[in-house]
Amino acid sequence: MPRIEEIITKALERVNGNRYQLSLMVAKRAEQLSMGEENLLDIDTRKMKFSDIALREIAEGKILLDGFKEPSDK
């Protein structure tokens, strides 16, 4: 299993280094998982926290961000 630092780095790459955006995504996905949503990982997640599952799903590209737009240069 990859180290948490590696997972965070991959997840940050998915959101172009935006830590705020990543934290919002992890929080929202962790909430969904806690409410009974199925996880999208192909590993045993019984001993993992919801936030760790969410972070790993993002790092693996299984969760995409909808509704956020980058500000356009004017």
From TrEMBL:
**Keywords attached to this entry:** DNA-directed RNA polymerase, Nucleotidyltransferase, Transcription, Transferase
Q: Read off the SMART domains from this record.
A: RNA_pol_Rpb6 (SM01409)
Q: Which GO terms describe its cellular component?
A: DNA-directed RNA polymerase complex
What InterPro entries does the database record attribute to this sequence?
A: DNA-dir_RNA_pol_omega, Pol_omega/Rpo6/RPB6, RPB6/omega-like_sf
Is Membrane included in the keywords of this UniProt record? no
Gene3D superfamilies per record: 3.90.940.10
Q: Which GO terms describe its molecular function?
A: DNA binding; DNA-directed RNA polymerase activity
User: What EC numbers are recorded for this enzyme?
Assistant: 2.7.7.6
Could you give a single Gene Ontology term from the biological process aspect?
A: DNA-templated transcription
Q: Which Pfam families match?
A: RNA_pol_Rpb6
What top-tier enzyme class does this entry carry? transferase
Keyword Nucleotidyltransferase included in the entry's annotation? yes
Listed SUPFAM superfamilies: RPB6/omega subunit-like (SSF63562)
Q: Which reaction does it catalyse?
A: RNA(n) + a ribonucleoside 5'-triphosphate = RNA(n+1) + diphosphate
Q: Which family does it belong to?
A: Belongs to the RNA polymerase subunit omega family.
Binding partners and assembly: The RNAP catalytic core consists of 2 alpha, 1 beta, 1 beta' and 1 omega subunit. When a sigma factor is associated with the core the holoenzyme is formed, which can initiate transcription.
Q: Which NCBIfam families match?
A: PRK00392.6-2 (NF001579), rpoZ (TIGR00690)
Query: Tell me, what does this protein do in biology?
Result: Promotes RNA polymerase assembly. Latches the N- and C-terminal regions of the beta' subunit thereby facilitating its interaction with the beta and alpha subunits.
Q: What is this protein called?
A: DNA-directed RNA polymerase subunit omega
Q: What is the lineage of its organism?
A: Bacteria, Pseudomonadati, Campylobacterota, Epsilonproteobacteria, Campylobacterales
